[in-house]
Specification:
Length: 438
C-alpha cells in the first residue's frame, strides 16, 4: 500500500491510497471464499460452487462493492497512521476494483485541530469567594424558623406571612382544584393581592408578573398575558415560629443555639465556596478559549448542531410543539437567520470548549478510579430508578467508556482550577460531568 497526501489544510486533508494488484487479487479471493460459505446455491454444498457460478449468483456489481469495502477498511487506517493524521471524520471516493490491476481511492478527512494550550499557570482567576455575612445568617435562621413553624387557625383577614389554602373555581364557582400558598415566600405580586382578604372571599387573581412583559423583539407579536385565576380563600393559618434559642436548638438535634449558629455559618461558607468555584471554573474556561485560536472541523460543528436541534426538539415536544413547526414560525417572522446564527455560534463554542478540555486532560492527565466510577454509575442508576446492572446494559459499553472519559476531563479541569486558586470547593463524585456520553 502507498499513501500520498494530496492536500493538507488546518483541519482537513485529501489522501490518495494505492493498493497493489496482488493485494487486490488476494482480497477478491478472500471475499469470494467468505461469500461462498454464506450464499446457498442449489445443487452445491456451501463453499463448493464453482467460481463462475458463485460470481453469477452474487453479481459482478455486488462483488465489486464487497471487495471495495474490504480494501478500504484494510488500507485506510494504515494510510492515516503512516501519514500521521488524526481524522475525526472521513468521506471516501472509491470505485469498484478490477482483478489484476492496482486500485486507487481517495479519502477526504476532517482532522482534529492542532491546539497549543497557553501557559495555564499564567492564567489569573479573579472570581473570589464571597464572605458569610450576618444578613445571610439571619436569612438562613429565618428559613429554619419558618420550616419549623407551627400553623395555627386564625379568624381574621390574611396578613403577610400567613399560610393559605386557595380553591380554584370554574365560571360557575365550582371547585376544580386547590392551591396551598405561603404568603411569606410567594411572589410579591401574588401575596400583595391576597393580603387583607377575608376567609371565604372570592377574588380574581392576576397571574401576570412584571417579567411577563419584556420588550417584544421587532417583527414578533407580543405574548398573550395569562388569564386571571378565579379563587376562593378556603383557609387561613398563622405561623408560630420558634425563637432562636437553646430550646429550638435541641429540636434541631444540637445542645445550644451557638452550635446552630456555627453550623449555619459553616453551611453558608460551603455553599459560597462551591458557587465561587463554579464561577472560577467558568472564568478559567473563558480565558482559555480567549487565548487559544484554532479552526474547527466541519463534521464536529455539524454534529454539535444536530445535537442542539435534537435537544430543542425534545423541549418543544414537552410543549406539544414540533421542531418543524417552530422553524416554520421563525421563517414567517423573518427571524430564521438570527436563529441559525445563534445555533452556529453555540455549536462552535461547545466544540471549541470540548477540544480545549480534551487537550487540558492530555496535558494534565488524571484518572478516575474504579471505585469513583462505580459510585457515579450507582448514582445515575438511582436517579433513573433502576438497577445498576440493568442501567449498564441499557446504556451500553461505549456510553460507559465515554462517560468515564468525561469524568476524567472534568476532574482535570477541577484540579487545574483548584491549583490556580490555591484550593477550592471539592466537586462531588456524584456530579454529572458536562458533555454528551452518547
Amino acid at each position: 500500500m502507498e499513501a500520498t497526501l494530496v492536500e493538507k489544510k488546518a483541519v482537513s486533508a485529501t489522501v490518495k491510497v494505492t493498493v497493489p494488484a496482488q493485494e487486490v487479487d488476494t482480497t477478491f479471493e478472500s471475499v469470494l471464499r467468505s461469500l461462498a460459505r454464506q450464499v446457498k446455491i442449489p445443487g452445491f454444498r456451501p463453499g463448493r460452487a464453482p467460481r463462475g457460478v458463485l460470481v453469477q449468483r452474487i453479481g459482478e456489481e455486488a462483488l465489486g462493492q464487497e471487495v471495495r469495502d474490504a480494501l478500504v477498511d484494510a488500507n485506510y487506517p494504515k494510510a492515516v497512521a503512516e501519514l500521521e493524521l488524526a481524522p475525526v471524520h472521513a468521506h471516501f471516493h472509491a470505485h469498484a476494483p478490477e482483478e489484476g490491476h492496482d486500485y486507487e481511492f481517495e479519502v477526504h478527512v476532517d482532522l482534529y485541530p492542532e491546539v497549543v494550550l497557553p501557559d495555564v499557570e499564567n492564567i489569573v482567576i479573579d472570581t473570589a469567594v464571597d464572605p458569610v455575612t450576618d444578613a445571610m445568617v439571619a436569612d438562613a435562621v429565618e428559613q429554619l424558623r419558618r420550616e419549623n413553624a407551627t400553623l395555627v387557625p386564625v379568624e381574621r383577614p390574611t396578613e403577610a406571612g400567613d399560610y393559605v389554602l386557595l380553591e380554584s373555581l370554574s365560571e360557575t364557582d365550582e371547585v376544580i382544584g386547590t392551591l396551598p400558598l405561603d404568603l411569606e415566600t410567594a411572589q410579591d405580586h401574588l401575596a400583595e393581592q391576597l393580603i387583607g382578604t377575608d376567609l371565604g372571599a372570592t377574588i380574581e387573581l392576576d397571574l401576570a408578573t412584571p417579567d411577563d412583559d419584556p420588550e417584544t423583539p421587532e417583527g414578533e407579536d407580543p405574548p398573550e398575558p395569562p388569564a386571571p385565576l378565579r379563587v376562593r380563600l378556603a383557609d387561613i393559618k398563622g405561623k408560630e415560629k420558634p425563637d432562636p434559642d437553646d430550646e429550638f436548638a435541641k429540636t434541631l438535634g444540637m445542645e445550644a443555639w451557638p452550635e446552630v449558629d456555627k453550623r449555619v455559618r459553616e453551611s453558608l461558607a460551603s455553599q459560597l465556596e462551591q458557587q465561587a468555584f463554579e464561577g472560577q471554573r467558568d472564568e478559567f474556561v473563558e480565558k482559555l478559549m480567549a487565548e487559544t485560536d484554532f479552526e474547527l472541523p466541519h463534521s464536529l460543528l455539524n454534529r454539535r448542531k444536530v445535537s442542539l436541534l435534537e435537544s430543542l426538539s425534545e423541549d418543544l415536544k414537552r410543549q406539544d410543539l414540533t421542531l418543524e413547526g417552530y422553524l416554520a414560525s421563525l421563517d414567517e417572522k423573518g427571524t430564521r437567520e438570527t436563529f441559525d446564527g445563534e445555533l452556529e455560534e453555540s455549536a462552535a463554542n461547545g466544540v471549541r470548549r470540548d477540544i480545549l478540555l480534551e487537550q487540558l486532560l492530555e496535558a494534565r492527565p488524571t484518572t478516575v478510579s474504579d471505585e469513583d466510577f462505580s459510585g457515579a454509575i450507582r448514582s445515575l442508576a438511582a436517579r433513573e430508578g433502576t438497577d445498576v446492572q440493568l442501567f449498564r446494559r441499557n446504556v451500553g459499553e461505549q456510553w460507559l467508556e465515554n462517560y468515564r472519559f468525561l469524568m476524567a476531563r472534568d476532574r482535570a479541569l477541577r484540579e487545574t482550577v483548584e491549583e490556580l486558586v490555591g484550593g477550592g470547593a471539592e466537586g462531588s463524585d456524584d456530579e454529572q460531568p458536562e458533555g454528551d456520553a452518547s
